[in-house]
Amino acid sequence: MGESIGVRMIELIYCREKRLKKESKHIEILQFISSAVWKSLFGKNADGITTAEGEQYGYFIKDYNPLILKYISEDERIGGAALIVGIIKGILNHTGFDAQVYYSTVEGQDDKEKYISMYPATHFFIKFEPWVVEREK
């Protein structure tokens, strides 16, 4: 769900911003998603990108006040954030960065991560295929 939206989003953003250079490194595409794509979808940048501890090719895109959860009701089978997972996956696959994408919601407040929201923070976990990262060396 959402992968076809991701393909159209990246084409639209590249066209709007008149980008001549496409991202060739996995860190660059993560920064592009957390800034340009997030801004286009939600009117703000994502709250951060971090590496996943214990995962060699894993990263988190964090959103502490996810607008998607405001307007889409949660279902026990599929959450509102699943649409964003599909969009991220569509963008990554369309640009040649094969990855698995998951999400998790985080209730409560962390010492390091201060946020105030009635909706749980959402972390999008992106795990690149090993060959994607290895080709950059």
TrEMBL record:
Subcellular location: Endoplasmic reticulum; Golgi apparatus
GO cellular component: a single term: TRAPPI protein complex
InterPro entries in UniProt: NO_sig/Golgi_transp_ligand-bd (IPR024096), TRAPP-I_su5 (IPR016696), TRAPP_component (IPR007194)
Main location: endoplasmic reticulum
Biological process annotations from GO: endoplasmic reticulum to Golgi vesicle-mediated transport
Family membership noted in the UniProt record: Belongs to the TRAPP small subunits family. BET3 subfamily.
Protein name listed in UniProt: Trafficking protein particle complex subunit 5, putative
Organism of derivation: Ichthyophthirius multifiliis
